[in-house]
Design a protein that fits this description.
11 helices, 29% helix, single chain, FAD/NAD(P)-binding domain, binds flavin-adenine dinucleotide, 2 domains, alpha/beta
Amino acid sequence: MTDWTRRQICGVAGGVLATVATPHVGRSQNGPRVVVIGGGIGGATVARYLGDLRTVDVTLVEPKRRYITCFFSNLYLAGLRSLTSLTFGFEALVERHGVKVIHQAATAVDPDTKTVTLQSGEKLVYDRLVVAPGIAFASGTIGNYDASTAEVMPHAWNAGPQSELLRRQLESMEDGGVFVIVAPPNPFRCPPAPYERASLVAYYFKQFKPRSKIIVVDAKDSFSGQELFQESWGRHYPGMIEWLPSQFTGAVKAVDVAARLVVTEGETFNAAVANVIPAQKAGLIAEQAGLTDVSGWCPVDPVTFESTLRPGIHVVGDAIVGGDMPKSAFSANSQAKACAFAIAAAFRGSQHFPPHLFNSCYTFMAPDDAFTNAITFAAEDGKIKATRTFMSKLGESPEVRRRTAHQAVGWYSAFTTDVFGGGS
Ligand SMILES: Cc1cc2nc3c(=O)[nH]c(=O)nc-3n(C[C@H](O)[C@H](O)[C@H](O)COP(=O)(O)OP(=O)(O)OC[C@H]3O[C@@H](n4cnc5c(N)ncnc54)[C@H](O)[C@@H]3O)c2cc1C
């Protein structure tokens, strides 16, 4: 292996290939090759856990040099966290976990030749491929909403420039304005997150723009954690948040960015700021690779996370048909570990066991008021089924909720260390 210093590596990283090579002595170069597409929560976790084995040659392909977590980005929108505190690099995966990282997008997968083509045209050969591209937006559900309208009415559903745009808009909004959140149909990334966003922006308004209002125009008639949210909204933000189910409005059909209008079947809303979160599907490379079904998501074997459409290719994270498992960072991380162990077992020719899958979410309704849920899952009849559920209760004391909010902060730190193998 080339004995590059980190300085030399960074020099190369500025070039077209933008390859962060690995100076790690423990990295396997002769072992079976695994390419992982997508260095978000699912992909980084698979790469880290396979890299730790030191017997597998792991290459992670991710265009971004810095990953910003969506989880806790609603705290950023409310002015309670900096974006820097939500930002992670890939250095620890390279230096401590034996992963090679290439900062490019994958543009094509050829399952016959077992190759991944990168933006530069370079090809990577794999023995097993893991695809973890997160989400893309499904076109057509809100007539004219596209990438250019998103520059005026941001979705902020991938953390980064979109979150910054939305934060700037909220900061410059006049007191007394209406903030419209358009909540997407199921299934979508992080079911409680649109309502957490409404809660935390209400917290911000309560302090700085107390005459303002929030209207959530939903594509659904119910939502995750609804009773807990509505109880808290009554307690913290009486009269400030209005939730409109699809049966009242007929859901959003179009937007008018020039006039800042959100148009539903039955009503038109005048928005000082509009956060339009469209319907979702698996990240585009999954579709190109032939991993998606008619639902737009990727069906997988729930034990190995191997695609049921393309053998030898595994999919984890938000992109999969998850059964009872919600599209969350915790789920992606749990699936990724099961997937890494299944791939290692396949290389060794050893038996693999049905995984224990887990999801736990912390949701903020105010900085010192959070609720939590924890669910275990098992693979049954080819599907992921929930087996046990714990959920925070209605009427919990402020002290219990304060403790949960405190635990959430600890979870964030431990979890991101697990995924990226080190701090920011
Ligand atoms: C506002 C909000 C709040 C949330 N809060 C929580 C929470 O409290 N708890 C929780 O568990 N979850 C939460 N989530 C959900 C969580 O962020 C996602 O479920 C999680 O990020 C999914 O991981 P993933 O790996 O599937 O996708 P991602 O983390 O999005 O990673 C996908 C990666 O793939 C890369 N990629 C895409 N295409 C290509 C390509 N062609 N080539 C190479 N790379 C590619 C992307 O650049 C990206 O880095 C929240 C989400 C939002 C929007």
